[in-house]
Write a structure and sequence with these properties.
The protein is an alpha+beta fold. Helix content is about 20%, strand content about 40%. The chain has a nine-stranded antiparallel sheet.
């Protein structure tokens, strides 16, 4: 294998594929590497941890076809360290040579057969509005769980709704739901559960107004964004019956400016350390945010708001509250509550395509 390409072209491909490379030690040594495959002037760079695979294709000046499996992090760091300009890469007799300017590196490789051959499915069967899909993903993925012992909660449910697509994620402490009327795909009667990590990577790939190709089978989803293909294993299991988690009785209604509230949360949460809750006091004159960390200090900030209902003090996890307010895409937001122990609801005062449910914390 032998080719030449610009440093930035190669580093972009290595960065994309490298995001799928496993960071954990395991029995499959090849998963710590990226697979380089050259055919003519087309170079494919692939990384995988078996559950997630990302393959990026770039155009180079190739002269000898071939493939090589090399340590992902080391190769990426080397290419990143080189000066701008052309990089020459050659693989021969188990050694990958990287040359640029006066720099030259020789890297031992792993047998290409050690890299798992994970099918990336065929061509995408449907294309969707990339910006609309990614906008919805960014609103819900933060609510997905991170506890691998509960895999069902680490996914995002994609289900058909009103001719469009509904995205739902929950970690049991909060829930985010987004309806996208402009995106439609075949997801079956029960919907499909996709890993939130994979969807976060899809969101990273969509940077312009592009169409995203999608293909689904019983176990795998494939996304195509430009010359990058991402495949992920679907999560097996039943997603919680989320509809009953969304409160319908919320007599207290607060309306405030989203940016003002978000800035206040960011300041006050500096004192909402570890398990310290952020208290939200609501009364006729507006709302007050506060946090007190024992032996550290306290923070308080008043936020202008209109409020209808009984005076109420309710506490939330500061990060979860921040994520919910940040996810809303509107100038003003509505916070709906019933009492200090029942779930609260964040949404837009004018649109009903996104909602965020947040469980309160007990306070004394």
């Amino acid at each position: 294998m032998k080719f030449r390409c610009e440093r930035d072209t190669l580093i972009t491909a290595l960065n994309r594929a490298g995001r799928a490379v496993t960071t954990k030690a395991g029995p499959v040594v090849g998963l710590s590497g990226v697979l380089l495959e050259l055919s003519g002037d087309s170079l494919s760079v692939t990384g995988s941890d078996v559950d997630l695979t990302i393959a990026d294709r770039v155009t180079v000046s190739g002269s000898e076809n071939g493939s090589a499996l090399v340590q992902a992090r080391l190769l990426t760091d080397i290419v990143r360290s080189l000066d701008l300009g052309a990089v020459d890469v050659e693989f021969d007799d188990g050694v990958l040579s990287v040359r640029a300017g006066r720099s030259e590196f020789s890297l031992r490789t792993m047998p290409a057969s050690d890299f798992p051959r994970i099918p990336l499915l065929g061509e995408a069967t449907v294309t969707v509005d990339g910006q609309a899909l990614v906008g919805g993903l960014r609103q819900v993925v933060s609510a997905a769980g991170r506890d691998e012992s509960r895999p069902v909660l680490t996914g995002v449910l994609l289900t058909a709704f009103g001719g469009g697509l509904r995205l739902v994620a929950t970690d049991s402490y909060r829930l985010a739901q987004r309806d996208i009327a402009s995106v439609s795909m075949e997801v079956g009667d029960k919907g499909v559960l996709m890993p939130s990590r994979a969807l976060e990577e899809v969101a990273r790939l969509v940077v312009d107004d592009v169409r995203v190709g999608v293909q689904l089978d019983e176990n795998t989803v494939l996304f195509e964004v430009g010359e990058t293909r991402l495949s992920a294993r679907l999560i097996n299991g039943d997603f919680p019956s989320y509809e009953g988690l969304i409160p319908t009785d919320h007599p207290n209604r607060l309306v405030t400016d989203r940016k003002t509230l978000l800035d206040a949360i960011r300041r006050v949460r500096l004192l909402a350390l570890a398990q310290v809750p952020m208290r939200v006091s609501m009364q006729g004159g507006g709302m007050t945010l506060s946090a007190r960390a024992q032996d550290v200090g306290e923070a308080t900030e008043e936020v202008a708001a209109s409020y209808e209902g009984e005076d109420l003090v309710i506490a939330f996890n500061a990060q979860y509250l921040h994520d919910g307010v940040e996810a809303l895409d509107c100038e003003q937001i509505v916070l709906l509550t019933a009492d200090k122990l029942k779930p609260a609801l964040l949404r837009s005062p004018t649109e009903d395509d996104f909602l965020y449910v947040l469980m309160p914390l007990r306070i004394t």
